[in-house]
Amino acid sequence: MFMHNKNLMYTVRVSEPDPKLASLMLEQFGGPQGELAAAMRYFTQGIADEDPGRKDMLIDIATEELSHLEVIGSIVAMLTKGAKGKLAEGAEATADLYANITQGSGSHTLQLLYGGGPALVNSAGQLWTGGYIDSIGEPTADLRSNIAAESRAKIIYERLINITNDPGVKDALTFLMTREVAHQKMFEKALYSIENNFPPGKLPGNPDYTDKYYNMSTGPGDARGPWNQGDQWEFVEVKANQKPVNGGDGNPTVRLAAEEMKAIEQAAMRTKSRTDLDPVTGADLGAGPGAGKTKKVTTKG
Amino acid sequence: MFMHNKNLMYTVRVSEPDPKLASLMLEQFGGPQGELAAAMRYFTQGIADEDPGRKDMLIDIATEELSHLEVIGSIVAMLTKGAKGKLAEGAEATADLYANITQGSGSHTLQLLYGGGPALVNSAGQLWTGGYIDSIGEPTADLRSNIAAESRAKIIYERLINITNDPGVKDALTFLMTREVAHQKMFEKALYSIENNFPPGKLPGNPDYTDKYYNMSTGPGDARGPWNQGDQWEFVEVKANQKPVNGGDGNPTVRLAAEEMKAIEQAAMRTKSRTDLDPVTGADLGAGPGAGKTKKVTTKG
Amino acid sequence: MFMHNKNLMYTVRVSEPDPKLASLMLEQFGGPQGELAAAMRYFTQGIADEDPGRKDMLIDIATEELSHLEVIGSIVAMLTKGAKGKLAEGAEATADLYANITQGSGSHTLQLLYGGGPALVNSAGQLWTGGYIDSIGEPTADLRSNIAAESRAKIIYERLINITNDPGVKDALTFLMTREVAHQKMFEKALYSIENNFPPGKLPGNPDYTDKYYNMSTGPGDARGPWNQGDQWEFVEVKANQKPVNGGDGNPTVRLAAEEMKAIEQAAMRTKSRTDLDPVTGADLGAGPGAGKTKKVTTKG
Amino acid sequence: MFMHNKNLMYTVRVSEPDPKLASLMLEQFGGPQGELAAAMRYFTQGIADEDPGRKDMLIDIATEELSHLEVIGSIVAMLTKGAKGKLAEGAEATADLYANITQGSGSHTLQLLYGGGPALVNSAGQLWTGGYIDSIGEPTADLRSNIAAESRAKIIYERLINITNDPGVKDALTFLMTREVAHQKMFEKALYSIENNFPPGKLPGNPDYTDKYYNMSTGPGDARGPWNQGDQWEFVEVKANQKPVNGGDGNPTVRLAAEEMKAIEQAAMRTKSRTDLDPVTGADLGAGPGAGKTKKVTTKG
Amino acid sequence: MFMHNKNLMYTVRVSEPDPKLASLMLEQFGGPQGELAAAMRYFTQGIADEDPGRKDMLIDIATEELSHLEVIGSIVAMLTKGAKGKLAEGAEATADLYANITQGSGSHTLQLLYGGGPALVNSAGQLWTGGYIDSIGEPTADLRSNIAAESRAKIIYERLINITNDPGVKDALTFLMTREVAHQKMFEKALYSIENNFPPGKLPGNPDYTDKYYNMSTGPGDARGPWNQGDQWEFVEVKANQKPVNGGDGNPTVRLAAEEMKAIEQAAMRTKSRTDLDPVTGADLGAGPGAGKTKKVTTKG
Amino acid sequence: MFMHNKNLMYTVRVSEPDPKLASLMLEQFGGPQGELAAAMRYFTQGIADEDPGRKDMLIDIATEELSHLEVIGSIVAMLTKGAKGKLAEGAEATADLYANITQGSGSHTLQLLYGGGPALVNSAGQLWTGGYIDSIGEPTADLRSNIAAESRAKIIYERLINITNDPGVKDALTFLMTREVAHQKMFEKALYSIENNFPPGKLPGNPDYTDKYYNMSTGPGDARGPWNQGDQWEFVEVKANQKPVNGGDGNPTVRLAAEEMKAIEQAAMRTKSRTDLDPVTGADLGAGPGAGKTKKVTTKG
Hints:
- The structure is a homohexamer.
- Chain A contains ten helices and six strands.
- Chain A is mainly α.
- In chain A, helix 3 packs antiparallel against helix 7, helix 4 (52-89) runs antiparallel to helix 8 (167-192) and helix 7 (139-162) runs antiparallel to helix 8 (167-192).
- The longest helix of chain A is centred in the N-terminal third of the chain and has 38 residues, at 52-89.
- The first copy, chain A, is extended, with a radius of gyration of 29 Å.
- The N and C termini of chain A lie far apart (76 Å).
- The model of chain A is unreliable at 290-301 (pLDDT under 50).
- Chains in contact: A-B, A-C, A-D, A-E, A-F, B-C, B-D, B-E, B-F, C-D, C-E, C-F, D-E, D-F, E-F.
C-alpha cells in the first residue's frame, strides 16, 4: 500500500512565477519521459514480478518516481501561481491577461484548460497515453527498457536545465536528473545479475540469420564499424535484384479451399483494373477543357 | 531515397487461412513492438545523426525493418485471404460469416473495418500511435532505447511462435525474431563504440544524490541485491517522518508580486472550505430520509 | 513524498487463474473509471489547491487510490499467473495455448503484449489516456467531477461483481466498491463546505438566459418534469422557424479589412460552385453506360 | 431525427479577425469541456434511457449543445476569416503571413492544417477523443457526470471571457456560459427526482468500510474537516507498518495447478537475479576506465 | 440551430437482443467510417464555407448524418436491451452473465463500461478520435474527402449487412447504406460544379515533375496500366544508383553560423562512434562466458 | 523488400536554420496529410490487393512517399541543426536558448522533447495516429480515399510554400507538392480503369432512397444546385413534424424475453424520475440562502 508524507522529497524554492516556463516543465510531468510514465513502468512490472529482490527494487523506484512527480508538479504549480489567481478572478486588465498567456509556448492551454494546475500533458499539450509504457512482463527485456527510459529522462532534464535561469528550479531539476542516473545504475545491476540475459527470452534464434548484417542502404557514405565488421559479422551486400534470403520465389502463398478461392476470384474480377484502356477520369473532368493536356472525353464502351 | 524490390525479404508460405491468428499477428504489424515502430524509431534517428557510420547503420536497419513490415503484413494478408473474399462477396451463409469473424479474438474488426488487409493496429485493435516512438536525438539515449526495443520485439515474436501451429508462419516468425537479436547486437556495438557513454549527455549529476538508494517500500519482503548493496551504494532507509533530502521545510515556495498575491488570496477566499460546519450534501439528499445514517437536513446560515 | 508499505491495503485471495476474467478486471486498472484515473484526478488537484484542509483530503484519497491500484493490479496478476508461465516457457501444447488466450475476451492481448502483467489499458485494450482526467483547477467544478467519478467507479465495480464467481475476487471488489461510496461522501462534504458553490466560478450569468428551458426536441413523447416546470423555469417552445434568442438575423458577422475582404472574395471566386450546370461527375463515369439512370456525358464549356 | 434551422441560436457579431483568439476558442469547440463533448455525452445517454421524461430532457439539451457548437464554431470562423483568405490565395507578403500565424498560440496549426475552419481539437491542437465522454448507462452516475461537466464548461467559458476584449465575442460567450448554468440546474433536478439516488446503483457497500476515513498522508498540514470528522466518520490513522484492513498477510495469493506452478517456477528460475554477485554492467563499460568509481571488470563465473 | 423531432428518421424494428451483434454495429456509431465522423466532417466544412449553395448542402447532409447516428445508436440500444437490464440488476446467474458478455466480440466492454448504451468507440473498443476528420478548409480537397468517405461508409454497411441475419436490422442498415450512395452523388455534383477543380488549390506544380511516373518497385510483377503508360506519362525507371531527380549530390545542406557549427561539432565529438574498436558490450556481458561466440572481455583504453 | 539509396530523391538546400519554420514543416512529416500517412495508406492497400497492376502502382507510390518522408525529414533536420547543437551542449546563454525555442510555434517541443530531430507529430505536437489511415480493403473505396488524400496533401504543401521565404525550402516543397498532383492523376486512372466502380462494392441500394435529397436545414439561405435539382433528384422538404421515411411510429423496438423484460423494468423502476416533485437539489444547497431565487428547502417524503 502507498502512504504519503507531507514533506516533498526535495524542497522546492521557485524565484518567481513564469507560466511559459511552467508549460515547458510539463514535459516531465505528463510527457513521455516524465515521472508518471516512469512510475507506472516500474509499478506495473513490480506487481507481477516473481523475483523478490527485483520486485522490491521496482516498487522502491516506482515509489520514488511518484515522489518526483510531486516535486515537478509542485514546480509547475509555483510557476503558474501568479497567473492562476489573476485569470480565475479576472484581476488584471483583459489585454494583459491575453498577452500573458499567449506569449509563445503552450501556456495558454495550461492556464485556460487546466487552470494553472499541473496536467497530464507534455509541453505541447499532448495528452499522456498508456502507449508510453513499454513493460511486457519479461525481466530481461523490461530492465533494458528501464535503462533506456532513465537515460532518456536524464537528457530531457538536462535540456530543461539548459533553458532555465531560475536557480531554485535549476537546483530541483538537477536533483531529479541525478536520480535518473542513479536509477539507471540500479537497473543495470539488476539486468546483469540475471545470468544469461542475452538473448532475452528462451527461444534460440535461427543460426543462419544471427550474425548477418544486411547492407540495405547503399551509395556514397556507406560505412563500416564494429556493428558490421569483425569476426562475428557476415556482411551481406543487398543488390538491386536481391533474392529472398531463404530462397523461394519471394511471393507469399496460402492454400485456399475451393469456395474461398472462388470468392476471392469473384472479388478480384469485380474490382479488376482494365489496363488496356485510358479512361477519362474525374481529374480530367475537373481540369476543364482548356487545362494542360486536353483529354478527349469519351465514355467507355 | 527508398526503392522496392518485389521479392519479399523472406518467402512466406502459409498453410491455410486463419483470421483469428491473423489478428494476433497484427501485434507485430501495427503494435507497439511491431515493425513500423521499429522502422520509424531508427529512421527518425538516422536522418538527424551527425556520425556517418552510425547514421548508415540506422538507415540500414530501418530499411530492413520496413522489409520485415512487408513480411508480417503478407502473413496477415495470407491468413485473411479466405474470409476476405467471402465477406466482400457475401459468398457464404450469413450465420457462418457471423460465426467466423466473432470466434474469440479481434478478427471481427480486422475483417469488418479493414477488409482483411493488414492495418496499423495491435491485436486488440488499438490504433498505432507516435507515442510508441521514443527517439530523442541523443545517441547515448537513443541507442539504449533501440537495444531495449529489440529485446521487447524478440519476446513478442517468441510468444507468437509459442501459440502458432502453422509451420510456414512459425518459420517466418523465427526469421523475424532472429533478426531482432542480430539488431540488438549491432546497437550494442554502436553504443559501446561511443566512449564515455555513461551517464548519457553532458551535465554531471549532483554527487550528493548519485549513489544513494532510497528504500521507499518497507516491510516484509524488503530485500538487498547488487542494485543497493556494496561499496558504491549508500542505502537510505526512508522513515515514516522522512524529511526532504535537501533539508528545508518540505513545502514548495514562490515569491509572488503583491497583485498576484492579492488575486490568489481572493480566489482562495472564494473557494475556502468551512471546516467548522457539517453541511447537508447532495448525497444526503439523495440517500433519502430512511437511508443509512439519517442526517438532519438544515440549511446553512 | 510517497512511501510504500509491502502489505496490500486489502489482502487478496484468488481461487484460481482465469485470464479471461483478468482482462475484464483491467477496466478498473487502466480504464476510464479505474484507479489510476482516480489517483491522478485527485493528485493533480491536490498539488495546486490553496485550501489546506481540502488539499490534505485530496492527497489522502489520491494515496488510497494508488493503494487500490495495487490491489486491482494484484488481482490481475493472480488471475493470469497460470497462463503467464506457460506462454513464457512454451510449457503447453501450442494448440492449447492458442485456445486458452483466444476464448472470447481481450485476454490474448493481455497475454501476448503485456505478458500477463497488469497494463494501462481497459478491458478492450484501449490505452489509458490523459483525456480521462477532467481536473480544471477550480474546486467548485473539480469536486463535482470527483463526486461524479466516484459514482461511475462504484457502478463499474458493481458490474464486475455481478459477473464474478470467484469469492476472493468478489470480496476484494466489494471492498473497492465500498470505498468509492465513502469517497463520494467525502467529496460531497468538501463541496458543500464551500459556501455559495453554485454557480461555480465568479462571473454571474446573463439573467435573460438563466431560467429558460428550450424545448429543442418535439413530437410524441415530449414530457415535463421538475427540470422544466414550476416557478423557476420559463418553458420556451422552439418552433420550426425559430429566430435567434438574442434577435438579429441569425448570421455570424465580422468586419474585414479591405485586403482581407479581397482575399476572401478571391478564394470564394476560385472555388465557386456553378449552380446553373449539371456537370458530369466521377460517379457518372464510374457508373458505366448501362448503370441506373444513364447520364448524357457532356463536357462543360 | 435532427433538423437544422439556418438561424444561429444566438446571433454572433465579431469585431475583427484575430486568429490567435480563434485558436483559444477551439477549447470549447473541440476541447474536453467543449460543446461536442457535451452534446455527445447527453445524446448517448438519451438514446438508451428508459425513463421518458429524462430521455426527453437529455435529447433537448443535447440538441441545444449542438446549436452551441454551431455558435462557437461560427465565432472561430469569423475570427479566422481574414487570415484564411490571405493564406489560401497567397495574398500577403510571405514574411507577414509567417509572422501572423506564429505569433504565440496554436494559430499556426489552425491555419495551416485546418485552413482556418473550426476543427475538432482543443486550443493546443490535441485531437478530440471519445475518452472525454464519461456516459456509463446508469442515470444516478450519468446525471452526476453531467452536473460536473456543466460546471467545468461554465468555468472554461468564464476564463475565455476574462481574456477576450472583443465585445461581440464576449457577449456570445456570456450566453453560452449562462446556458451551462441553466443546464446544470436541470440535471440537478433530474438527479434528485430519482428517489434514493445515493449510493448509485443497486449493490450495498460492505458496512465495515463505508464510514472510515483513512489518513494516508501524514505530517505537518494534516487537517480535519467535515469530510473526516463528526459522527459519521471513523478516522483511521495509517501507520508506518499499517496492516491490511481485512487482516491476512498482505500478499495476493492464487491456487495454481501443478503444471502452472511448474511453468511459473521455470520462468522464475530463468530470470532469477543473483543477489550474491556484483556484476559488471553496461553502465560500467560505458563510464570508461577513468570515470567515477572505477569498477574492476570481471566476467561472472 | 439544430432541432430534434422525436421520430427516428427510419423506424427501427429489431427482432431480438444480441449484444455481440451490437458491438459490431458500433463500427458505424463510433468508428472511423461511422455517422459521427460523417456529420462532423460536413459540419466543420459547412460552417466556414463561403459558397451559399455548397454550405447549405453540407449542413443538410451533416444534419441527416446526425439523424443516422440516432438510427444506428437506437439499433445498438435495442440489441443490448436484454443484457443491459440483467447486468444492471444482477438478474441472472453470475456464470450466465459472464458467459453472455464474453462470447467472442467486444460485447464485454460495451456492457461493462458503457452499460449497454451506444458509445463513441468502434467494434474493437477503440475510442473515437478527431483524427478521423480530414476537413482542411479547401472545397476542391474537402469534397473529394467527402466522396471517399461516403464510399468507405457504403462498404462498411455492406459488410455489416452480410453478417446480419436479423431482418429488421438488415432493413435499417440497407437504408443507411443507400443514403451513403446518394450523398456520394451529391458531393460529386458539388465537386464538378466547381470549374477547374483540378489540380486543387491555386499554385501550379513544377512542370518537370507533373507527368513522370517513377518506377520505384522493380522485379517480377512490374506492370503497366493507364496510370503509367500512354502519352501523358513519362515512365522513369529508378535504378540501383539513382541520382536525385534535381541533380546535386543528394545530401541535405544548410548554412550554419560559426557558433552553431561549433556547437554541433562539439555534440558530434561527444557522441562520436569509434569505428576502430570492437568494444565489449552489454550483450557480451549478458550472453555469459559459455554462450555462442565467446568474446574476450577487455576494457577500452 | 525495401532498399535504400543514400541519395535523397531531391537534393535539399536550406539557407539557414529556423526552428520555428521546422516545427511547421512537421505537418508533412508526422501530420495527418503528411508523407508517412501517405506511404502507409498505399502500402497497406498494396500488400493485400489481388490486381497485379494496381498492386504494383500502390507499392511504387508508397515507396516514393517514403522517399518524400526522407526529404521533408531532412528539411526539418537542417532547419533545427543550429539550435540542436546549442541546446545539447548548453552552448548559448540560457536566456537566449529560452527565448529561441519559445518564440511562437511548437519549436519548444521539437527541441526539448525530440532534440531537434524530425518526429512523428504534426505542427502542434499531436502524435501521429493510425486513425489517419483510411484503407478498408475495397479498391473502389480505397482509390477514392487516395485521390482525396493527395488533394489534401497538395493544399498543405501550398500553404507551407505560401509562408516560407527560404528559396531552398520553397523549391523542395514545390517538388513535393507537384508529385501529389501526379499521384492524384495516377489514382484517378486506376479508379476509372475499374469498370462499374460506382456505387462502390457489390450490394445495390434500396431504390426508394437512392435519389432523394432531404432538405434537413431550412430557412433563409436555402439553396438549390446540381446536387439537389434536375431530373435525377427528388427534393424532399423536411417538415417540422416529419414522419419516418419508412413509415411506422418512429420508435425503435425489440422483442424481449420475459426475464429480460422483467430486468429492464426493474432497472427502470429503480432509476425512475418523479415528475410530480420539485426536489431540493445540490445546486439549491450550493447556491446559499441568499442567492438568486430562494428555494424552500424541504426533504422528500
